[in-house]
Amino acid sequence: MIYGTGTDISKTSRFEKWVKNPELYLRFFNDRELFEGDCEKHIESACCHYASRFSAKEAFVKALGTGFSGIELKDFYVAKDENGRPYFVFGEKTRKILEDRAGKNCAVHLSLSHEKEFATAFVIIEKLG
Fold first, then answer.
1. What is d(CA 25, CA 34) in angstroms, rounded to the nearest whole number?
2. What is the mean pLDDT of residues 88-115?
3. Residue 119: which of 106, 128, 129, 110 has the closest Cα?
4. pLDDT of residue 50
5. Confidence of residue 25 (pLDDT cuts 50, 70, 90)
6. Quick one: which of 66, 67, 84, 100 has the fewest CB in 10 Å?
7. 36-78, pLDDT tens digit by residue?
């Protein structure tokens, strides 16, 4: 059964000031999801990277139905499996909120996409069994 869905879209150029100021992206992103590479040399790629991950976080809290109330942005992050498929890794606080709302037996599905000036994310939280 589907507990919730969420979607978000971000304009990638909005993240240019973040890419140029490490204080900003270090405030919102977990160390494990930082752009791998030289942000200044690959500014467009870095902007897409952060825009898609920020959209993922927005889509998740929308699917959860909490907004960012009680959730710390750095307590969960987007990772990729060996095939490049994105998924969330949850810290203890975020995992507890997720389980309190959707149950201990739930799955979170994530899809990311970006095209030049926009990045989108779609999240489904599924109650299992």
1. 8
2. 96
3. 110
4. 95
5. confident
6. 84
7. 887 777 889 999 999 999 999 999 999 999 999 999 999 999 9
Distance (Å, rounded) from C-alpha 114 to C-alpha 121? 9
Confidence at residue 111, expressed as pLDDT on a 0 to 100 scale: 98
Q: Rounded to whole angstroms, how far apart are CA atoms 14 and 36?
A: 19
Q: Using the 8-state DSSP alphabet, how is residue 65 labeled?
A: T
Strands (E) located in 1-129: 2-11, 76-80, 86-90, 106-115, 118-127
**Residues near 81 by beta carbon (within 8 Å), at least 6 away in sequence:** 87
Contacts 24+ apart (CB under 8 A), 31-40: 32/77, 32/79, 32/89, 33/77, 33/78, 33/79
Q: Tell me the two tokens of residue 127.
A: 């109650």
| Plot region of 95 (φ>0 → left; ψ -120 to 50 → alpha; else → beta) | alpha
Which residue type sits at 92?
A: E
Instruction: Specify burial of residue 25 (Cβ count, 10 A radius: 0-12, 13-18, 19+).
Output: buried
pTM over 0.90: yes
